[in-house]
Amino acid sequence: MSDIEFEDFRITNEDLSDLKQHGELSDGSVIPFRQLPVLVIEGESIAQTGAIARICGKLGDMYPKDIIEAGKVDQVIDTVTDINVLINPSMHESDPSIKRQMRDDLSSDALPKYFGYLEKILEVNDSGWFVGDEMTVADIAVWSMLGWIAQGVLDDIPSTLPKTFERLTRLYNEMSRMPKVQEWKRLTYAYDESSTGEYNYHVPDSI
Ligand SMILES: N[C@@H](CCC(=O)N[C@@H](CS)C(=O)NCC(=O)O)C(=O)O
């Protein structure tokens, strides 16, 4: 979004088993918690999506300098992490009926509850963005999470769920129209055309 150059390095299945065993890639990059994503910057490896988002936000001027405004961004990023953590166990559940029950509970309770809280923040801030008058990494975090759900890849979680939240829908659609977002989707999803599973690969242009 801020024209900062980076390499979007995707690992192979072989790399994955390597990093699980040794905590590093074949080029020596350290993977601290043996999970991805990891940002390698100035020779240092930084894990955890929230930590990476903050660094990128600071570099790209999409993270406020004011500590309270920064806290408002953090609370949204961390809530998106909480939502991922809530969904994650159902992605690893192999019993279909237990998985369906977990997904029904998420769809009827936890997800609408969190979406409602996020919607309320947008209503109170009333600029169309989560914090202040400009797009921040908080908006990007929510955009990505909403697109994941709206692409319908999570069995038994209705892809239409985000659409019932007017301000979240407006934010998603506005961001999706941005040329930089479209360009990123074109470049990134080309890697993942053959991928299967319940991951975030083909987020829709609008919800
Ligand atoms: N808390 C981490 C979670 C990262 C995570 O779950 N990564 C997945 C891929 S999306 C992973 O590496 N899974 C393999 C594993 O945990 O063994 C974050 O927010 O970045």
Quick take:
The chain has seven helices and two strands; from the N terminus they run H-E-E-H-H-H-H-H-H. By secondary structure, it is mainly alpha-helical. Helix 3 (67-91) runs parallel beside helix 5 and helix 5 (137-150) crosses helix 6.
Q: Which CATH C-level class of the largest domain is it?
A: Mainly Alpha
Helix percentage? 55-70%
SS class: mainly alpha
The end-to-end span amounts to: 21 Å
Number of DSSP helical runs: 7
**Number of individual domains:** 2
- Sheet-strand content, in percent, reads under 5%
Written description of the protein model:
The model has no long low-confidence stretch (mean pLDDT 94). This protein has 207 residues and is mainly α. The protein has seven helices and two strands, in the order H-E-E-H-H-H-H-H-H. A hairpin with a 2-residue loop joins strand 1 and strand 2. A two-stranded antiparallel sheet has the order 1-2. The chain is globular, with a radius of gyration of 17 Å. The protein folds into two domains: 13-47, no CATH class; 67-199, Glutathione S-transferase Yfyf (Class Pi), Chain A, domain 2. The structure holds glutathione (GSH).
Keywords:
2 domains, Glutathione S-transferase Yfyf (Class Pi), Chain A, domain 2, globular, binds glutathione, 207 residues, two-stranded antiparallel sheet, 7 helices, mainly alpha
Q: Strands, helices and their partners?
A:
Elements: H1 13-22, E1 38-41, E2 44-47, H2 49-59, H3 67-91, H4 96-125, H5 137-150, H6 166-177, H7 179-191
Antiparallel strand pairs: 1-2
